[in-house]
Design brief:
With 113 residues, the chain is mainly beta. The chain has no helices and eleven strands. Strand 4 and strand 5 (44-50) form a beta hairpin. The chain is globular, with a radius of gyration of 13 Å. It starts with a strand and ends with a strand.
């Protein structure tokens, strides 16, 4: 399976972005998915998890009131809607399939005025 992440970019504080992660293959709907991020000078940080069916989701405390994870199993796509972005959200964001550790190539999100 491959995970491809278009999206990302530069946004001003308070702005919004939607990340997507397109999965190849026909097994996408069987597995939970995660978003993680890697900020400069920091370790890998878990951001959010969604179950296979898309009806249970969990977010890190730092983003729980601003980010929403969701998925479209018919389109084999995972999303992360990010609102109220702050400079501390600047990072490379990765989608990840915990089942086997498959990870997307990452997409840069930069929050700066």
């Amino acid at each position: 399976v491959q995970l491809v992440e278009p999206g990302g970019g530069l946004v001003k504080p308070g702005g919004s972005l939607r990340l997507s992660c397109a999965a190849s293959g026909c097994m996408f709907r069987r597995y939970s998915m995660k978003w993680v991020r890697l900020a400069p000078g920091k370790g890998l940080e878990w951001v959010s998890t969604i179950n296979a069916g898309g009806d249970q989701a969990y977010c890190a405390y730092s983003v729980k009131d601003r980010y929403t994870i969701f998925r479209d199993n018919a389109e084999n796509t995972l999303y992360l809607q990010m609102n109220g972005l702050q400079p501390e959200d600047t990072a490379v964001y990765y989608c990840l399939r915990p089942f086997d550790g498959t990870r997307g190539q990452g997409t840069q999100v930069t929050v700066s005025s």
